Amino acid sequence: MSKALIKFIRLSPTKARLIAREIQGMNAELAMASLKFMPNKGAKYIANAISSAVSNGSFEPNEVIVKSCRVDAGSVLKRFRARARGSASRIRKPTSHIFVEVEKLEEKKDETKKSNKSTKTAKVKKEN
């Protein structure tokens, strides 16, 4: 398992979470391909984080899955805009942190566990 963290991206965390939910559990190669064609700003950053996590573990993109993709809120830049009669209104410019974990596919181990369980139940039935 390998990880990647991109911090202080000038993007609202709620907007980025919509994209992050779409790609959890997907193959990394398929996730990067689908993110490439999304029109959202956050798709580019999440694709960058996935490719970074894949290369951090020195894997190939087709042999790993996106185990988790989490978007946390970062610091908020606070600005003011002048309004009528000498007053001001606050403008919030949120940032976000994108955390991606990728994990290597292990299909063979899962298949052997299933076959062992089925043989154990078969043996118990034969004894009775």
TrEMBL record:
SUPFAM superfamilies according to UniProt: Ribosomal protein L22
Recite the UniProt keywords alphabetically.
Answer: Ribonucleoprotein, Ribosomal protein, RNA-binding, rRNA-binding
- Which gene does this sequence derive from? rplV
List the biased-composition ranges (Basic residues). 115-128
Q: Which GO terms describe its biological process?
A: translation
Query: What is the protein's species of origin?
Result: Campylobacter cuniculorum DSM 23162 = LMG 24588
Q: Which GO terms describe its molecular function?
A: rRNA binding; structural constituent of ribosome
Source species, domain of life: Bacteria
Share what the entry says about its subunit structure, partners included.
Part of the 50S ribosomal subunit.
**What Pfam families does the record tag this protein with?**
Ribosomal_L22 (PF00237)
- Gene Ontology terms, cellular component aspect? cytosolic large ribosomal subunit
Task: Tell me yes or no: is rRNA-binding among this UniProt entry's keywords.
Answer: yes
Q: What's the stated role of this polypeptide?
A: This protein binds specifically to 23S rRNA; its binding is stimulated by other ribosomal proteins, e.g., L4, L17, and L20. It is important during the early stages of 50S assembly. It makes multiple contacts with different domains of the 23S rRNA in the assembled 50S subunit and ribosome. The globular domain of the protein is located near the polypeptide exit tunnel on the outside of the subunit, while an extended beta-hairpin is found that lines the wall of the exit tunnel in the center of the 70S ribosome.
Q: Name the chain's protein.
A: Large ribosomal subunit protein uL22
Q: Give the residue ranges for region: Disordered.
A: 107-128
In which family does this protein belong, per the annotation?
A: Belongs to the universal ribosomal protein uL22 family.
HAMAP family with a match to the protein in the record: Ribosomal_uL22_B
